[in-house]
Amino acid sequence: MRSALHRLQQEGFIASAGPGRDQRLIVTPLTQSDGRELLLIVGHLEGLAAREAASLVPEQRRALVRRLREVNRQLAIASRTRGAHARAFELDLEFHRTYVEGVVGPRLLALHRAIKPQSERYTRLYVNVLLDELPTSVKEHERIVRGIASGDADAAQEAVETNWRNAAKRLEKVIAEHGERGLWHIR
């Protein structure tokens, strides 16, 4: 149990709170600054993944691009469908996972798998509000696909990092409007 709690603390899901011997573990609050930092980190990691994807041999790149376009098409449909929050969320995850999984090396994959779930806490919580922004995200995804399709590693990386920077801005706006979650005073 102690090992599992330590692991959750290392991964940023729980934190210590309170003075000295009165310390206790709490679920890490969802704050504007933490959300922004997480999304920017994910953006940089996925930017490196997109760079790698754009560097694949043409045959592999074409297959990847077909899959990315199909997922993004489904995401566009879900973004216009009332009540499709969970589906849209899963499709967005799948879009990003598609150019990461099976493309990057084991170190980048391990870093991504360690940090991505933390960012998902934010997007899952605020998905209902963020759904209105999905058409913008779909357009940003199209730029990612074009960069990968053309084999332009710089363009692919920049498109991904821009998508995540914009997502961080969208999240900051939503949190400013709806409040941070899990903030309470520890005595």
Short account of what is shown:
The chain has 187 residues and is mainly α.
Using brief descriptors, characterize the structure shown:
187 residues, mainly alpha, two-stranded antiparallel sheet, 7 helices, 2 strands, globular
Structural write-up:
This protein is mainly alpha-helical and 187 residues long. Helix content is 72%, strand content 4%. The chain contains seven helices and two strands. The protein has helices at 2-10, 32-54, 58-79, 85-98, 106-130, 134-149, 153-178, and strands at residues 14-17, 24-27. The protein has a two-stranded antiparallel sheet. β1 (14-17) and β2 form a beta hairpin. α3 runs antiparallel to α4 and α6 packs antiparallel against α7. The two termini are 25 Å apart. The mean pLDDT is 88.
Give me the secondary-structure category. Answer: mainly alpha
Bulk shape: globular
Q: What is the terminal separation in angstroms?
A: 25 Å
Q: Strands of the biggest beta sheet: in what spatial order?
A: 1-2
Give the proportion of residues in helices.
Answer: over 70%
Strand segment count: 2
C-alpha Rg (nearest Å): 18 Å
What order do the helices and strands follow? Answer: HEEHHHHHH
Average pLDDT, rounded to a whole number, is 88
Which percent band covers the strand fraction? under 5%
How many H/I helices? 7
Spans of at least 5 consecutive residues with low confidence:
none
Sheet having the most strands: 2 strands, antiparallel
